[in-house]
Amino acid sequence: xxxxxxxxxxxxxxxxxxxxxxxxxxxxxxxxxxxxxxxxxxxxxxxxxxxxxxxxxxxxxxxxxxxxxxxxxxxxxxxxxxxxxxxxxxxxxxxxxxxxxxxxxxxxxxxxxxxxxxxxxxxxxxxxxxxxxxxxxxxxxxxxxxxxxxxxxxxxxxxxxxxxxxxxxxxxxxxxx
Length: 177
Fold this sequence. Notes:
By secondary structure, the chain is an alpha+beta fold. It has helices at about 5-65, 70-90, 100-105, 135-150; strands at about 115-120, 125-135, 155, 165-175.
């Protein structure tokens, strides 16, 4: 293509193109700065509100923990811990029975529940007597079979009175572990 424009007009067209490019670059830079400023402003407002909210929550927690009720609760917890330490010192070689209860609850059917638990130690034998409620005889039978299969339980004993009623059974049993 042949350009028949005089050199002065060619230079003016070139300068206009440069000015357009500079104007576009400046406009884009200005828009970028405005958007950055808005993002900074919004994040500053958000973080300021979050900070004031956290400060108010902290001050409310401090008021709650400095109240007389909280101090009394802390004192009661300390006394309970002291009593537990004294009991643990009195029975140094006693085994906890919570794992036994966990195993019993593992075998307990879904709609059944225990109502009473008593624990006796006779020499080296630990004996527990439990009472509870079962919906029907099948659930109670599954519960008994599960306990008998567990090797940590010995002498699982369900009295014959547990099997008299077919539904809504108040049962009792004893076991050794």
